[in-house]
Write a structure and sequence with these properties.
By secondary structure, the protein is mostly helical. The chain contains 3 helices and no strands. The protein has helices at residues 3-15, 46-59, 63-77. The radius of gyration is 25 Å and the shape is elongated.
Length: 80
């Protein structure tokens, strides 16, 4: 690099306004919650989660929907 190139870089660094650093906006996930829902956290195997995400993407639906379908089918199968 030429000396002029370094001079331009240093001049740019000197004149840069570091107070105008852009911030990423944080937004809540857009999920529809009914009055009948409650949040629940659980752990899944990494490969199972990867398959679940892939299925949700292919069906263009939330992961929550697939999990709820699976739980409903489980209870229907076991008559509970």
């Amino acid at each position: 690099m030429a000396k002029d190139d370094f001079s331009k870089i240093f001049k740019d660094l000197e004149t840069r306004d570091y107070n105008k650093t852009p911030f990423q906006e944080i937004q809540k996930a857009k999920t529809k919650k009914s009055d009948n829902e409650k949040q629940f956290l659980f752990w899944l195997d990494k490969e199972l989660l990867k398959s679940l995400k892939k299925e949700a993407y292919e069906r263009d639906c939330p992961i929550k929907e697939i999990i709820c379908e699976g739980i409903i089918l489980y209870f229907e199968k076991n008559d509970k």
